[in-house]
């Protein structure tokens, strides 16, 4: 098994869950995603992109990281190039770190749709900002390790059929979800979360830290 972490340009907060996701992984940085390397204590084996977004980033700690430079006028985003490089190197699972937030909403959306595409090809993918996690929902049933009170939503990228949610404040039993419906937003884990999907494209988005008591 060969897990790769792709450092992307979105928001990233170091948490114990993020450290666990990075454990034992090989790392590739996509353009401005290199800024997360020092905070995470990792050294990428490759830094890839058109390098048009590194202004203001201290690159001195990363001068020895091998670079793969592309022209700005290209047909793929830097994140896609990084994921492709991981696949060429034998990746069997991907963690897209810094997949949410950041200055480009279109990039965050693409990270989610790209994750679904990769999952449909058989590649396990986790998207994370440290505080939020996203996982494509494939047909079938899957359980999740989130604690009681964890907030989660299901983002539908198509109509969904046969959607069941167990171990939640608002369970569902083999329902059909229209594209654009808000029915599957802002739920909470109650016990062991299990989700079953018969058909459709969707992403589970969870906030694992929401069950923790507030400070102060």
UniProtKB/TrEMBL annotation:
Domain Thiamin pyrophosphokinase thiamin-binding: 143-203
Keyword vocabulary terms for this entry: ATP-binding, Kinase, Nucleotide-binding, Transferase
Entry-linked SMART domains: TPK_B1_binding
Originating species: Aquibium oceanicum
GO molecular function: ATP binding; kinase activity; thiamine binding; thiamine diphosphokinase activity
E.C. number: 2.7.6.2
GO annotation terms (biological process): thiamine diphosphate biosynthetic process; thiamine metabolic process
Coiled-coil features, chain-numbered ranges: none
Lineage top rank: taxon: Bacteria
Full protein name: Thiamine diphosphokinase
Matches recorded under InterPro entries: Thi_PPkinase, Thiamin_PyroPKinase_B1-bd, TPK, TPK_catalytic, TPK_catalytic_sf
One Pfam family matching this protein: TPK_B1_binding
Leading EC class: transferase
């Amino acid at each position: 098994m060969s897990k790769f972490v792709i450092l992307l340009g979105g928001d990233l907060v170091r948490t114990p869950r993020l450290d666990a996701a990075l454990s034992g992984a090989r790392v590739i940085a996509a353009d401005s995603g290199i800024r997360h390397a020092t905070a995470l204590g990792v050294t990428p084996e490759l830094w890839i992109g058109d390098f048009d977004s590194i202004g203001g980033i201290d690159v001195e700690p990363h001068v020895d990281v091998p670079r793969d430079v592309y022209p700005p006028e290209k047909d793929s985003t830097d994140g896609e190039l990084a994921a492709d490089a991981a696949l060429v190197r034998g990746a069997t699972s991907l963690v897209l770190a810094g997949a949410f937030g950041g200055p480009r909403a279109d990039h965050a959306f693409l990270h989610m749709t790209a994750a679904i595409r990769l999952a449909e090809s058989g590649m396990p993918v986790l998207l994370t900002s440290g505080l939020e996690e996203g996982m494509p929902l494939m047909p079938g049933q899957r359980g999740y390790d989130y604690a009681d009170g964890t907030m989660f939503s299901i983002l539908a990228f198509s109509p969904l059929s046969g959607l069941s949610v167990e171990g939640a404040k608002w369970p569902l039993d083999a329902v059909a979800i229209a594209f654009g419906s808000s029915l599957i937003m802002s739920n909470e884990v109650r016990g062991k979360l299990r989700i079953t999907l018969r058909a459709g494209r969707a992403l589970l988005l969870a906030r694992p830290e929401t069950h923790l008591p507030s400070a102060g």
